[in-house]
Amino acid sequence: MESSSRHPAGSSDTKHRRGGALDSYGKGLPALSIATVVVITIALALVFFYAPLEAEQGFLQKIFYVHVPLAIIALCGFVIGGVFAALHLRTRDSRWDMRSYVAIHMSLIFGVGALITGSIWAKGSWGHWWVWSEPTLVSFLIVFLLYATYQPLRFAIEDPESQARYASVFAITAGAFVPLNFIAVRLSTAYLHPRVLGSTSNLPPRMAFTFLVSLLGMSLLFVTLCKFELTAKHVRAQLRALRRLTDARAGAHSSAGWAGEAPRRRPRSAAPTQLPATRMSAHITGRPGS
Fold first, then answer.
1. In the chain, what are the domain boundaries?
2. Per-residue pLDDT tens for 94-122?
């Protein structure tokens, strides 16, 4: 363990390490954001100008390039959150807990997008916003509702260590359930969505290429948003720490000033001033004397 004399709290080395930690969270974020915008723009161009129209659904089928990547990234994000949670339980490093929280939080947002686009697709294809006999929709909804309880459960615990520990256990348990959703969809026979993963893919080459680019764009968007949220949370935590440090130093200086102030002495030649009774009462109570 390093002694405090080597790395005092206000030394330049400590400030450099704090600045390096801050830079590591935001490092590469501008380039990643630009890459995300470029790939998503290319994906949209391919969707509207390159991918052919589907024979039965026509233009409505193009929502497939948004809905399916959203659903895949959301499910993968839930699993990644479980992996980060396992690393937190193993290392007791709070950074893994924060990464697990951000991954699950962002996956819930992507899950909302998947449910909305899926309902729009169902309305155009089947005439109903929701079909309970479709295993793809129902299984995804079950996973989404399971993770919707993550944040209420987490913030119902006041102790930070217990909160992180129980949240990690929940994330691992729920993350193990996600592959069951994928297996149920793969083994089901009543499905509408074309198979796009594996050797049994029935997408034409141009549709498959457009889908892969869309999936890459959604993946970059997920990573960019997660990195942005992690950076924002880290900066907010640093600001709170600096505010507490500033308040503590201000309080210490104020206490030192009061303790170090010498009492004022009266000149020996000056006689003590005595107030009349009425003026003394007014001086204490704050009311003018009669």
1. 67-243
2. 889 999 999 999 999 999 999 999 888 88
